[in-house]
Structures are given as C-alpha cells and as structure tokens.
Recover the amino acids of this structure.
C-alpha cells in the first residue's frame, strides 16, 4: 500500500490526523533520512570531537570536551523548537518540511567543516554550535513527519524502525571513522556526506504540502520564545513523557560522552585503538538492540500498549550503565553495552509513538516535537557539567563507577516518570 494523495497527512496544516496507511516506499525513505541525519549528528559526539579535542588540547581534554559539547547542546536545545515552529508556519511551495530538511543538513555539514579545520577549542565549539543548529533544524522537521504522515495504528511499527536508526547511525558513523581513521577531517565529513544523500532521497519521496496561510494566526516575535514552552500542567501527559525521556537520556549521556575516555583512561587503551574499539562496541549494541526495536514496535502496535515497554526498557538501560561503570576490562564493558542496547532498542521503538499520541496540538507537530527534542539535547549539556561531581569522588578525576551509577539511577527515575501518563496504556 502507498500513501494516497488524499491522505490528510499530505494536506496543509489544520486538517485531521492521517488515516491512510503509508507504504514501504515511504517508510524506507523516512528510515533512511533518520539514519543519515543521526549518522551525521552522533558520529562527532561518539568519536570525532573527542579525538579532535584530545589532539588540540591534550592536557585539558576532559574539560575542553565538556565545554564544546555543552555549548552545542545549549544551541540545540534553544533552537530546535524554534525551527519546528517556523517549519509549522512555512508556506513555501516546496512544503513545510522539505526546506528545513535541506537547509538544516547543509548548515550542519558546514559546521563540521569548521571543526575539521579548527586549531583551537573555541573554534571547535563554534563549529559544533553551527552543526547542532543546522542538524537540529532538519531533525525538528524530520520528527514531525511521523505525526504528519503515519496513522496511529502504524506508529509503533514505524517508530520501531525509526527509533533504532540512532543506534545504526552510530554504527555506520563509527564504521566510517574506522575506515578513514587516519584523517580527522574525513572522520567528521564522510558521515555528514552520507547524511546529505539520505535527506535528499527522503525529500524526493516525501508528500509534503505547505501550510495553509488562512489557517495561520498572525505571527508575533514573542511566538519564537513561546516555541520553547509547552505548559506541563495543562498538558500533563506530554510533561510526564518529556520528563521520562529527559531522565533516561541524562543517564545515557554519561555513556555517550565518556565512553571514549572509559576505553582509554579507565581500561587503558590508546587513542589510536579507540575508534576500532568504539566501532566494535557500537556493532555489539546495535545487534543487541535490533531485535528489541523491531519486535518491540510490532508488539506494541499489536497490544496497543506503549507504557510498559518504556518502563522495562528504562530499567534495563540502567542495569547496563551500572555494568559499564563497574567493568574492569573490555569484555565486561561490552556486556554492559549489550544490555544498554537491549534497553535502548525497546525504548526508542516505542517512545516516539507514545509522545506522538500525547502531542498538545497535532497541527503544530514540529514545534511540539521540537520541545520534546529538548529532552534529548538538554541532557547532553547537563551531563558533562554534573559529571565532575561523580568523577571526582575519592579525590581523583576518573571515578567512572560512581559516574555510571549516577547514570543508572537517572535511567530508573525516567522509568518511574512514565507511570502517571493517562492517555497511553
């Protein structure tokens, strides 16, 4: 089955929710677009930037990395809902999502060019801020495609494929960095090139229509600031879903930010060995999560239950983070990464479908999904800032067991935050 031209999802804003099922051609293009964007965005966080910082500031690399990633995360957090609001209001003849997909991925790539040529930490931070602003403009539009185009009865299945693209994207990206490991420039730009191609394929397939001018309220400058806010008291289910993802991703950000240093500083491997070891760890977590993502999404659709899957996934992820923190060798590290993958695969398969159900206003899907995206990006800023509180326990600077124990606690708290959600079983 294919998406009908009369599908409400392909109509301008202000219409009902989509009811016509989407076909595999659209799903494949959408999954590829998500995969490409995650590859471009997560590869620098996972490998490239930490190695770049280690090269230009070897004596202060932990603090410098925290500065770079925190600055980028703040830009992402503040800009994504604004891009989403503007996307919802876009009346271009090219549609309301396509211009932001194309412009965003190209701007993000330009930011990575700045990082590739940087010779100091401030320039690296500026480049990462530009990259985050661009890639998250594309992400805001891309996330809105799910409620725009996919009916409720298919969202678990599509969310299962889409949710897992972040893990596959990390695998693809780390695989690319392993292949071009002799060049930091290629480690940054080759994954971005894949992202550009993937977004172009999606744009060619996406049945995107512009927003109906007549359905738009007059624009006021204050609307951009209001883009950053959804009242959690007026929309409590959305607020609890946001908090649950925030807490889980706060725990996961400890792993994402410090896995390279766990491998080098805690387990004793060299910077030259790190890309290959990270790639193998990513391959392991991807293999572990693939089954839970696909099966979890399908089972969630069949049972029409979302919350129990999110709860279980959060607890499993917490256990995996704890194992990583206590690891004393690469084998134990891989066991923890595998458990994290099992939990993350299930979580990402279902959580996007859950939040699509509790959006405050489906006609402003990109804006509200942009606010929800803050729950992904804000932890990337907070985790590097609060991690030293745990890293320095015991008068040292590398107490990774305490740091990952804290991450596990945050993940479990994220599970508890989903319990009060009422609109989703």
């Amino acid at each position: 089955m294919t998406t009908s031209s009369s599908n409400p999802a392909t109509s301008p804003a202000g219409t009902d929710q989509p009811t016509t099922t989407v076909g595999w051609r659209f799903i494949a293009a959408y999954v590829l677009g998500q995969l490409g964007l995650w590859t471009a965005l997560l590869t620098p966080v996972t490998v490239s930037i930490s190695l770049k910082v280690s090269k230009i500031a070897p004596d202060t690399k932990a603090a410098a990395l925290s500065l770079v990633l925190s600055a980028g995360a703040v830009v992402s957090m503040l800009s994504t809902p604004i891009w989403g609001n503007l996307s919802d209001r876009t009346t271009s003849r090219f549609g309301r999502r396509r211009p932001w997909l194309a412009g965003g991925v190209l701007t993000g790539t330009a930011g990575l060019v700045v990082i590739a040529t940087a010779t100091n930490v401030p320039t690296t931070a500026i480049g990462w801020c530009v990259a985050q602003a661009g890639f998250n403009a594309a992400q805001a539009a891309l996330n809105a495609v799910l409620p725009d185009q996919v009916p409720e009865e298919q969202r678990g299945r599509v969310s299962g494929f889409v949710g897992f693209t972040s893990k596959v994207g990390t695998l693809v990206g780390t695989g690319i960095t392993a292949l071009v490991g002799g060049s930091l420039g290629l480690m940054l730009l080759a994954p971005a090139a894949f992202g550009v191609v993937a977004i172009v394929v999606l744009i060619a397939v996406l049945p995107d229509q512009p927003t109906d001018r007549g359905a738009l309220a007059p624009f006021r400058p204050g609307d951009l600031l209001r883009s950053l806010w959804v009242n959690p008291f007026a929309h409590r289910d959305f607020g609890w879903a946001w908090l649950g993802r925030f807490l889980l991703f706060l725990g996961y950000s400890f792993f994402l930010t410090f896995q390279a240093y766990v491998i080098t500083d805690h387990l004793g491997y060299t910077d030259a060995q790190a890309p290959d070891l990270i790639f193998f760890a990513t391959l392991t977590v991807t293999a572990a999560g693939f089954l839970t993502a696909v099966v979890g999404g399908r089972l969630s659709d069949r049972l029409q239950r979302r919350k129990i899957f999110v709860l279980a996934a959060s607890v499993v992820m917490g256990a995996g983070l704890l194992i990583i923190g206590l690891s004393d060798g690469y084998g134990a590290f891989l066991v923890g990464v595998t458990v994290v993958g099992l939990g993350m695969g299930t979580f990402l398969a279902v959580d996007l479908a859950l939040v699509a159900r509790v959006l405050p206003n489906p006609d402003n899907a990109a804006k509200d999904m942009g606010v929800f995206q803050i729950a992904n990006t804000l932890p990337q800023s907070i985790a590097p800032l609060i991690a030293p509180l745990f890293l320095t326990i015991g008068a040292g600077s590398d107490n990774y067991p305490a740091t990952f124990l804290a991450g596990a606690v945050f993940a479990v708290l994220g599970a508890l935050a989903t319990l009060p959600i009422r609109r989703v079983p």
